[in-house]
Structures are given as structure tokens and as C-alpha cells.
Write a structure and sequence with these properties.
Length: 137
């Protein structure tokens, strides 16, 4: 009986870890990189939304979303990208997405994100896309 009770907290702990989400920010060549880690769903989307809003409010209109540790995205998470992209582009900026895991990429592909966003293999490639767009102006 004791073993059964010991397993329940561990399983609950594992379930709660599966639903964690963290956004961390770094700068690369002056461009904010928002690293997404964990599950981006209806419960965690407000954290991502606040991070992007903070960048926009600070005048940072070139943003990279690094998805190398993003393990899940729901429609709410996808909605965060969509809710900002028009405003950011109207103001001369963009959001580049990089390092997307295959499971998350399938969701992006199903919903046509590759036609709407530059999705590249790494942060360096995303920075390169911003540099290309600067040269075109």
C-alpha cells in the first residue's frame, strides 16, 4: 500500500512538470530572442503574450522566437503569434521563428505558418533573415 501512495505524488509531479512553460529573453546582435520552453497552451499563453508585449512596448519590433525547447503548442499559443504579427509588421518589424521541434512544426505546417512567418533552423539564421530584410530596404 505504501508504494501506491508513493507513486501518486511522483505522477502528479511529473504531470505538473509537463505543463510548465518559461519564456526567457536574451539579446543577439541587438535583437531580442524569446526562448520558449515547455507547453504553450491556454494556461501559459498569457506569459508569452506579456513577453512579446513588453518587447513591443519597449520599441523592439524585430523579435525572434526560439522554439528549441517548446514541446507543445495549442491554438491559444498560435494565437499569440497571430495577435501581434500584423501590428509589428505595420510598424516595420517582424517575428522570426527558429529551432522548431518536429512535433511543433507539424502544427505550424497544418495551420500554414510557414507561409506567414520565416521559420528557420537557428537563431543565427533568424538574425540573417533580419539582415536580409534590412538590405532590401
Amino acid at each position: 500500500m505504501l508504494l501506491l501512495w508513493e507513486k501518486i505524488p511522483r505522477n502528479q509531479e511529473m504531470a505538473s512538470l509537463a505543463n510548465t512553460f518559461v519564456v526567457s529573453r536574451t539579446l543577439h546582435d541587438g535583437i531580442p530572442v524569446l526562448a520558449l520552453d515547455g507547453f504553450l497552451d491556454a494556461h501559459t499563453a498569457p506569459n508569452f503574450e506579456a513577453a512579446i508585449q513588453q518587447e513591443v512596448d519597449g520599441g523592439n519590433l524585430r523579435i525572434i522566437a526560439n522554439c528549441d525547447k517548446l514541446t507543445y503548442i495549442s491554438s491559444a499559443g498560435l494565437g499569440v503569434f497571430m495577435s501581434f504579427i500584423e501590428e509589428i509588421r505595420e510598424r516595420g518589424g517582424d517575428i522570426k521563428i527558429c529551432s522548431v521541434q518536429p512535433k511543433v512544426m507539424q502544427v505550424f505546417e497544418i495551420l500554414g505558418f510557414p507561409a506567414l512567418f520565416d521559420i528557420v533552423t537557428g537563431v543565427g539564421d533568424a538574425i540573417g533573415k533580419f539582415q536580409e530584410s534590412n538590405q532590401e530596404r
